[in-house]
Write a structure and sequence with these properties.
316 residues; Quinone Oxidoreductase, Chain A, domain 1; Rossmann fold; seven-stranded mixed sheet; six-stranded parallel sheet; 16 strands; metal-binding; zinc; GroES-like_sf; NAD(P)-bd_dom_sf; Zinc-binding dehydrogenase
Length: 316
């Protein structure tokens, strides 16, 4: 079968012929129906800092995976052929595309412990987006951010993660303000039920934000969040648009700001997002492309030309 594989930083993905996977004891093979593209895919291609995370090279990337169980291995009794599943990338099985060959291929093998059941009325595109973008957003806002009814929350970035995080917070009863440089998506921001939108989080300095979640992570956004959050507030760093930031430690210290990193989440976070999807109250923007368009899609992400989450859903 064909697979999009990563070989090295600053080199394009390569379409390679690879053997079809088989189900190991305790594992399954998934027929991939949707695979999400992520800014971390851009980072992997551009920044050598990501190389240490890879188990091997070349490796089939793609860590947001949804599909149908095509084969079950010895000892697997709780899943059967035909089950609709998403793959949580943060279990002891490891992350697809990093610890083992991922979802930019027609089939993928994975341990059963990573599987989460996709509700029947949830599309595979949403199933894929929920595994990382959804999980990470839900965890950052609810678990790490401690957002609840009445919280004044600032969200930086209304892309694939930010749109989900902002809406989850609204559904939790928070008062949400969004900073998004791309004015073309402001109508989508307002439709999510937020209180305000602007180009910079600094525009909400007078609001008294309790928590700011930075889904962009372009260095200056982290610094802006620390300077804008209220005294005693919390800044949650999720985005990794840049792997370094220069911050004002005076404000960090004198305002007693808590700066917390948030990575991934749990299967419970994936399930929580799937449950929101199933109700129809959470319906983030998704742009669907084909398997052949994956490299072009990653470039579109790098160029900032994607609205919502980018998911490959056909041509596998």
């Amino acid at each position: 079968m064909h697979a999009w594989q990563f070989t090295n930083t600053h080199e394009p993905l390569v379409m390679n012929d690879v053997p079809e996977p088989t189900a190991a004891p305790g594992g399954v093979v998934i027929e991939v129906k949707a695979a999400g593209l992520c800014h971390s895919d851009v980072g992997l291609l551009e920044d050598e800092g990501w190389l240490a995370l890879l188990a091997k090279r070349p490796i089939t990337i793609g860590h947001e995976v949804a599909g149908v169980v095509a084969e079950v291995g010895e000892g697997v009794t709780d899943w059967k052929v035909g089950d609709r599943v998403g793959v949580c990338p943060t279990t002891d099985a490891g992350a697809p595309g990093y610890a083992f060959d991922g979802g930019f291929a027609p089939k993928m093998a994975v341990d059963r412990i990573a599987l989460v059941r996709i509700p029947e009325n949830v599309s595979f595109a949403y199933g894929a987006a929920g595994t990382d973008a959804g999980m990470t957003s839900h965890h950052a806002v609810i678990a790490t951010g401690g957002v609840k009814a009445g919280t004044k929350l600032g969200v930086i970035g209304f892309g694939g993660l930010g749109q989900i995080g902002a809406r989850v917070a609204v559904l939790a009863g928070a008062e949400v303000y969004v900073a998004e440089v791309n004015e073309s998506v402001w109508d989508n921001v307002r439709a999510a039920g937020v209180k305000g939108v602007a180009k910079s989080i600094r525009d909400f300095a007078d609001v008294g934000l309790d928590v700011i979640v930075d889904f962009a992570g372009f260095g200056v956004t982290t610094a802006d969040a620390i300077e804008t959050v209220r005294p005693g507030g919390r800044v949650v760093q999720v985005g990794m648009g840049r792997l370094e930031a220069t911050i004002n430690t005076r404000d960090l210290i004198t305002k007693a700001v808590t700066l917390a990193g948030s990575v991934g989440g749990t299967k419970d976070d994936v399930q929580g997002v799937y449950d929101y999807f199933a109700t129809g109250e959470l319906n983030p923007a998704i742009t669907e492309i084909s398997f052949d368009e994956i490299p072009d899609g990653i470039q579109r992400l790098a160029d900032g030309k994607v609205v919502g989450r980018l998911v490959a859903t056909s041509g596998f």
